[in-house]
Amino acid sequence: YLEHSPCYLNVSLSENKCAPFYRRLVQVSEKVDERKDVDLGLRESCCAFNEFVLCKYVHVNQDCGQEAAIFLQRHLDRISSPLLQEHCAHYTYAADSCATSSSSVSYPFLHFLLKNVISMLTNY
């Protein structure tokens, strides 16, 4: 991890790389309102998270090398995959995934989960 951390940080914070996706993810998480439509909130959160993670994978592979990309992918799979796949599978894997929604997951729980994963991602 320490070997790759400066490059991970650069990818996360660079305006030409993933910083815009990170800001969008933070904005989505900050506008959580429990009275809001659960499906809409879930879709926004899952799509924003997926965009940020995909950006990280692409730029880490390009800028930090394949070894760093493999480490990042394994780490993210270990810390987030089971829960995110359960809650975000429709928005991650379905065609037109971020255009429609059909879930009944507890949005406050997902918000809590995403905030923790976001925090971990910014450290990588």
UniProtKB/TrEMBL annotation:
<protein>
    <submittedName>
        <fullName>Uncharacterized protein</fullName>
    </submittedName>
</protein>
